[in-house]
Amino acid sequence: MAKISDITAYPNQSPVALTDYLIGTDNTTKATKTFTVQDLANAIDDQVSLQEVLTVGNTDGGVGMSVTGASSFGNLTLTGTLTAGGGVGTAGQFLSSTGTGIEWVSETFVDGSGTQHFIPVWQDADTLTDSVIAQNAPATRVTIDGADLHLTRDLYISQDISHINDFNTFISFPSDDNFSVTTNGTEKFKADENKLILYYQGDIKAETTSSGAKVINGSSNAILEIPMASNATDGIRFLGGVNASVNRPTISPMNPTGDIRFGDQGSGQVFDFQQNKIAFDTDATNTFIKADNNDPESLEIHADNDVNLLADRHVVINGTVPATASAAGVRGAIIYDNDYIYVCVQTNTWKRVAISSW
What we know:
Elements: E1 21-25, E2 32-36, H1 37-47, H2 50-54, E3 94-97, E4 102-105, E5 111-112, E6 118-124, E7 127-136, E8 141-144, E9 160-163, E10 166-175, E11 178-183, E12 186-192, E13 196-200, E14 203-208, E15 212-217, E16 221-227, E17 236-239, E18 250-253, E19 271-273, E20 277-280, E21 288-291, E22 299-302, E23 334-336, E24 340-346, E25 349-354
Parallel strand pairs: 5-7
Antiparallel strand pairs: 1-2, 3-4, 6-7, 7-8, 9-10, 10-11, 11-12, 12-13, 13-14, 14-15, 15-16, 17-18, 19-20, 20-21, 21-22, 23-24, 24-25
């Protein structure tokens, strides 16, 4: 075999691999033999303890170990005392990094008990207990037991709000700018960015429109429609309670000088309530019933043609007869008593005719 010289300079080749070979002398036969770096490492790991490597036979702790740089170990067994940060710590302490070193710190335990599926809450600084919030089966459902839910910010719902154990009653958000209320499986209320709809037993009963609101009988027939006012003086006002009798509410135009019209003016079916006047047909100046503002009031009936008083029994005319032929009166006035019928033929001019039994 080749002789290894202790004075010859051999080339320095790196890196050293665990499969590289070494030459040594057998302890028993004194023969020269070769082995790998890995074989040597295994022999040291199996036969030599960390304490034997550091200081053979020293058990008094007088020799310390300092590790610099990155290091790794297999199984590390300590049979003596571990000292860190200048001391050995006290029972129950553990080593913790300070960022610049290590030190012994005392443990902090959390105690308390809980119930499966309930989200815990801090009862005090170091005790957990059940909260009122639970995640029950199915896992997608969270319940709040026996407490109110108070929100100080917005609540974001991606699907429905349902009554517990009653999935036929819920508030739904089917799409953006759209929500509905369903009870007993039937939709009762729906709103989107354009309108609001009320339902009864599946049928639309009321809805808002671009011009106002309407009450609907059946699927589409409007039985009451109230146009939106274009300004403060337009539209219809319905009053009850404080301003009028609940059993007989007031219906009046928003503008005191305005009118309320029923029907289509073009068809000649118009009733105008304007300035104490009820006007019929499209000719509001010639066909009307009107009361003046005097006290006591007078009532005027005017028609383009005849005024027919048709009664199944009697037409009754009551009033106070004139005291003299020149008493105050209006041409055309007729009044009677037990003896005479009085007719006003000109202003403040009366004539009479006697009446008798037969």
